[in-house]
Every structure is written in C-alpha cells, then in structure tokens.
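> forwarded from #structure-qc
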C-alpha cells in the first residue's frame, strides 16, 4: 500500500500552522506518536499549493499569535493577576511563547490555566480542537458504504436505533423536517400533562433547545414565560423545521440525589469511550455538566454552564468550573445558584452509566470514538445523545491536566498509526 492509498480527509487550518518539528516531546510518549501520525496524515495529503499556504502560515503565525496574545491578555489577564497569578504583561509573553512553540492559540492559555507553572510546563501534551476535530477525528472516521452507518449525530436516528436495540433513550413524540411531520416518529400527539423538550435533530451546543412545562387545560409554558396551546406548540415547531429539522421529546428529570445541582435543566455526563487495542470500547474520561441559570433549558458547557471531572472508578465529582473564557475562572465546591455540594458528590448509578455507554458503543463499532451524553434519572441512566466528534476541552479543563499522554492520547495514537499504516 502506498502513501497515496493511506491518505485521510483531514483539514489543516493555516492558523495556527501544524507542527513541522515536534519540539520538547520524548520518543516514548503517546502524544509524540499521535503528533507524528497527524503530521504524516497532512504531509501525505498536501500538494504544492498546500505546502505554500502552510509556509505562509509558519511565517505569519509569530506576528498573528502575538496580536492574539495582547488582545486576550488585556481582556482576560486582570482576574488572573489579581488572584496571585503572573502580571498581565507576563501572561502575554507566556501566551506568545506557548502559541509559537506549541501551536496553542492564546485563548487556551486561559481554558487550560497554563498560567499555573506545573501545567504550563506540560503545554506540549495538550490537544486542541484544531488537532482533534479538524484532524484526528476526521482521519478516524468510518469509511465504506455510508448507508450502513448509524448516524449518531442525528438525534432521531439515534433514538430509533438504540430504542430498537433495547437501550434506554428519551421517548420521541414527534419530529418535523422541512415543515412536515415525520410519519414514523411517534404518533404526533403530545401526552396530556407531559413536560416537553424541543431540540434540533442535528443541533449542537444546545442551540435552539426549548423546555415547555405542562400547564392546566392543555397549555404549555417555556422558561421565558411564554404560553401556548398544544396545537400552537406543534405549529411553532413545524415553523422551526422549515429552517432546521426538529423533534419533540419527553422532558427528563434528574435523579433526586442531583436536584440540588441544577436550577431545573437536566444535568448530563459527557462520557468518552474509545475502542481499545482489543477492539472493545473503553471508558476513558467523563465530565458532569450543570446549568447555572434558571432560564437555561440545557446544561451545555459551551453555553455558559459549569462542569466537574468525574472519577472514572468511583463516579465522584471534583470541583466545577466554567470554560475559562469571559472571566469565568472560578472553581466551585458548591453550585453557584443552588448551593448544592459538588466536590465529592457521587453520581447515582455510575457503574450502570459506564456499562450503558460501553453497550451503546459496541453497537456502532468499528466507530473508534464516541462522546455519550447520559442523564441520571430516578430509576437509572438514560442515553440522551451521541457525539462523533467530542470536545476534549471540557476534560482537559475540568481535570486540570492534558490528555495527550493519558489513555485518551494513547488510544488515539494507536488508531492513527493503524489507519495510516505506521504499525502492523
């Protein structure tokens, strides 16, 4: 098999440009193997025009990254300096050095808290969205007859597939595409007295999600205080579907042990599973997400929520934090709105949730990696969604460590080397 036969459809942005030389990486590290495989992937795919474009990126990146560092430091550096961290000028210089040496955009200095010396000296081990979502994940995508693939990111297909296979999912009452109801998605009737959740079939980040609470006389009220009848709600979602596909599901409620960790929205764990060297799904990282606004319908980390790392062995939570941008640098032992204790809280049904994720992954192998959103209901865990390009930021942020040399990086390196023919 030639190198041309082993190309993969990755995207390589011009800024930051990819690593040409792997500075500061030991030969035996998983992150070294992973970055070598990533470098082989883009070099095999590149033609003269691509190399020229990337060369321009290498030449301009020192100046562009310095500009980003100045802007980001001026916007976010004050709280770090006031809390005993380095001064703003030093933060800017550290950002510029990290972005130049390790190709880490300046904003990740705050997301990963690289102002902490112990973490800054591990900067080479961090993975960013440029490397994962645009590169590694795309390289590891399933190939072949796509008609046989389960479209995990399609929430309607997800609910149908796992429901048919006996795994617990949220009930779907109706779905709508292009202004029309999908005939085989429920019977289109909304049960009396049932709280409802409306979301895009292929949406991300909780955008477009709405919670509608059942009221008397067949009416519903959303978190913004709007009210409508059952018929009006269906018409409303039909209208939404002219722009994007939507579905209506049952609203799920949190286990009683978790009600003080949310102002109302369902809290979910993002649990990563990756096929191991034996081809079996392995649970590697997890983060528990919580809404902090009474008007939020979702717990999404990138939509202003907070998250806490989960101990994979016990299901115990660490302190929670926001994304680390916009000044949300705090770490919370208790929920900032409800006061419920976070650190040390053990998630109910944790072994069952891990087993559910592994069982769900087995049904879609040989897909290499999935990020599962799982809710903890009063009577057990429930699959909410699956994500084929799960974000590593939430785990590296909440765990206060890079994943490049963790099991996550080790398994991705193994699969990249196999995909590119770099190992037997």
């Amino acid at each position: 098999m030639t190198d041309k036969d082993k190309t993969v459809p990755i995207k390589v942005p011009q800024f930051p440009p990819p690593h040409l030389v792997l500075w500061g990486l030991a030969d035996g590290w998983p992150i070294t193997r992973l970055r070598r495989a990533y470098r082989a992937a883009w070099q095999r795919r590149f033609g003269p025009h691509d190399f020229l474009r990337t060369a321009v990126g290498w030449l301009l990146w020192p100046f562009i990254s310095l500009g980003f560092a100045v802007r980001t430091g001026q916007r976010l550096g004050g709280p770090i300096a006031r809390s005993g961290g380095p001064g703003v000028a030093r933060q800017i210089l550290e950002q510029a050095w990290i972005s130049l040496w390790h190709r880490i955009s300046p904003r990740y200095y705050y997301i990963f808290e690289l102002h902490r010396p112990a973490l800054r000296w591990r900067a080479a081990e961090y993975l960013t969205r440029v490397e994962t979502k645009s590169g590694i994940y795309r390289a590891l995508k399933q190939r072949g007859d796509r008609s046989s693939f389960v479209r995990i990111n399609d929430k309607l297909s997800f609910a149908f597939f796992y429901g048919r296979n006996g795994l617990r999912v949220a009930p779907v009452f109706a779905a709508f595409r292009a202004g029309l109801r999908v005939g085989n998605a429920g019977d289109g009737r909304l049960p009396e007295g049932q709280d409802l959740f409306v979301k895009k079939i292929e949406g991300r980040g909780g955008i477009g999600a709405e919670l509608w609470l059942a009221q008397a006389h067949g009416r519903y009220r959303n978190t913004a205080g709007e009210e409508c009848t059952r018929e009006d709600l269906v018409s409303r979602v039909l209208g939404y579907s002219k722009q994007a596909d939507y579905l209506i599901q049952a609203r799920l409620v949190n286990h009683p042990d978790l009600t003080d960790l949310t102002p109302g929205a369902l809290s979910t764990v993002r649990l990563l599973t990756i096929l191991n060297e034996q081809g079996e799904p392995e649970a590697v990282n997890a983060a528990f997400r919580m809404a902090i606004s009474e008007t939020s319908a979702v717990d999404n980390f990138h939509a202003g929520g907070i998250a806490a790392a989960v101990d994979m062995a016990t299901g115990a939570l660490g302190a929670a934090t926001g994304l680390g941008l916009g000044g949300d640098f705090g770490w919370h032992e208790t929920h900032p709105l409800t006061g419920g204790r976070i650190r040390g809280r053990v998630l109910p049904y944790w072994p069952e949730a891990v087993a559910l994720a592994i069982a769900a992954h087995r049904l879609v192998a040989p897909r290499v990696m999935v990020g599962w959103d799982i809710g903890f209901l009063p009577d057990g865990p429930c699959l909410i969604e699956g994500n084929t390009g799960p974000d590593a930021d939430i785990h590296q942020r909440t765990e206060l460590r890079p994943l490049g040399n963790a099991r996550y990086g080790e398994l991705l390196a193994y699969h990249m080397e196999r995909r590119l023919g770099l190992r037997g």
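QC bot note: The radius of gyration is 23 Å. The first strand starts at residue 172 and ends at 177.
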